[in-house]
Amino acid sequence: MKSNKLIHILALISILFSCQKEIVRTSTNVENSITSVKVNKTDIATIKFIEPYKNQLDEEMNKVIGTCPIELIEEDYQSTLGNFIIDLILFQSEKTFNKKIDMAVVTNGGLRTPMPEGKVTVGNIFELMPFNNEIVVLELQGEAVIKMMHYAAFKGNAVFAGVKYKVKNGQTEDIMIAGEPFDYDRIYTLAVSDYLATGGDKMYFLKEATKTHLIGLVFRDAIINHIKELTNNGKNIIGNKDDRVVLIN
Hints:
- This protein is of the alpha+beta class.
- The protein has 7 helices and 13 strands.
- Helix 1 (2-18) packs antiparallel against helix 2 (41-61) and helix 3 packs across helix 7 (219-232).
- It is globular, with a radius of gyration of 22 Å.
């Protein structure tokens, strides 16, 4: 956990470091104008102070945490990247929450880059998930869950773990959650980022949650921790498409 906090702090320092230079125009002649860098004594002192931390940040970001035999990419409804990420989010959330969670969801908008083929570094995960979103567990009534499933069928940008369903003519059919047929009268638990939980990506129905549980797990940390666990167990990063979504023509 200390390492993760250190990375977050150093990332902020790196941003500050990158903003120390003031770009000024030294000529009003458009054809012969020269752009130069003006650095005052305060800037120099700041740069010298920050330099060791930036070097430490670079070292952390370049650490290899796993291996991905084939590039994992994003697609509509489900994908090799989306399935890998959301399955691990459900697993890591249950481990942290210490309770069974029915399902988890992520949208394609939250996954900014593919998982690269070959060696995967901490920096790759920061590029994939640049936001410092936390995972929360929501309790949702059946009505809100149905709204979520209709959203998923219509938008095609939501990837689920713990859910199977069919899409026909833009509508959901045969919804299965946690291995059982959907029950409108049941309360379901959902692991999701705090951004989506507050209506991000137009998922306003998630604001209808009857309860919100803060579990103290950052989305990006969950990914990094899971990949490290795979590596420690001699496993690679593998993402597969399966029958969790069936598109009916």
